[in-house]
Design goal:
The protein has helices at 16-29, 33-44, 77-86, 108-114, 171-181, 183-189, 208-217, 241-252, 259-271, and strands at residues 3-7, 9-10, 65-67, 72-73, 94-98, 102-103, 119-122, 135-139, 144-147, 156-159, 161-162, 166-170, 198-199, 205-206, 223-226, 232-234, 238-239. The protein is an alpha/beta fold and 273 residues long. It has a single domain, classed as Spore Coat Polysaccharide Biosynthesis Protein SpsA, Chain A, CATH 3.90.550. Helix 5 (171-181) crosses helix 6. The protein starts with a strand and ends with a helix.
């Protein structure tokens, strides 16, 4: 079973829908055997069943040791992500980054953990019309990322970059990225500077999430998206990938969208990701 920290960078009051959904997800995935055994013994005025006493990471029912540290608020989003990573539990196997306006289903964390990947996220979207997906494919000819607008549905696909709205990272990728790019700072005080805005090879700036994907992929990590994990993203309402589908045909046919996006579609089909 896994030790997981759920990290929520915040720059506004979190959406109530997000907190309700997150509590349901934690209730679904977290081990509560010991707490329930104590409650049962107390109510029945009996003794605690020793078979139910164990560390959450050793849960025989397949649940996990999950902890959400205090929220950290800042208008500088990459700074917030870096500090949260610095404050993660030393023994955590994974961290789940989750934005303060993302609405997951109860089993979404379990589904990402089941893949046992170093980098795997849900298929999130922007929170506006049209709600385009936040997965990207690298295009060698333009030295830039293109937004994917078509992909195999319902399973795991490999991509070149992914947003951090609902993203699971292993301890291995966290440590390796820090040691590869900031070895002295990480060895000295645990500062890995994982998330920073980065200039692209031909100019232009990558966001902090795309920049992390760029760094991780270039030291050998593969990046995955579970297209069956489709959280809502609260704007006027919780946008999801289902809302993008009504726009998808127009993007594919070139009625709307960018040339880069059409190229990215062809790249995904060619690689079979």
């Amino acid at each position: 079973m896994a030790v997981v920290d759920i990290l929520v960078p915040q720059y506004r009051l979190p959406q109530p829908l997000m907190w309700e959904a997150t509590n349901q997800m934690m209730a679904f995935s977290a081990c509560k055997c010991t707490m329930r055994a104590i409650q049962t013994a107390h109510l029945s005025k009996g003794r605690v069943d020793p078979r139910e006493i164990h560390h959450p990471s050793e849960c025989p029912k397949g649940k996990h040791d999950i902890f959400m540290p205090p929220r950290l608020s800042s208008s500088v989003i990459h700074w917030t992500r870096n500090v949260l990573l610095e404050q993660r539990r030393p023994n955590c196997d994974y961290v789940l980054f989750m934005d303060d306006d993302i609405v997951p289903e109860p089993d979404y964390l379990d589904r990402l953990l089941a893949h046992k990947k170093d980098i795997v996220g849900g298929l999130c979207t922007q929170r506006q019309d049209p709600p385009r997906p936040t997965i990207r494919q690298w295009m060698e000819e333009t030295q830039n990322y293109g937004a994917l607008i078509e992909w195999p549905h319902g399973g795991l696909i490999e991509v070149d970059a992914i947003g951090t709205g609902f993203l699971l990272l292993s301890r291995r990728v966290i440590e390796d990225v820090a040691r590869a790019y900031h070895p002295k700072e990480y060895a000295k005080d645990g500062r890995g500077w994982w998330f920073r805005f980065k200039w692209g090879p031909l100019g232009g700036e990558f966001g902090e999430d795309i920049s992390f994907s760029w760094k991780a992929q270039r030291i050998g990590f593969q990046i995955y998206c579970d297209t069956s994990v489709t959280p809502g993203h609260v704007g006027d309402y919780p946008y999801s990938i289902k809302d993008f589908f009504e726009h998808q045909k127009a993007y594919i046919e070139g009625v709307v969208g960018l040339t880069e996006e059409a190229k990215a579609v062809r790249t995904l089909k060619a690689t079979g990701a």
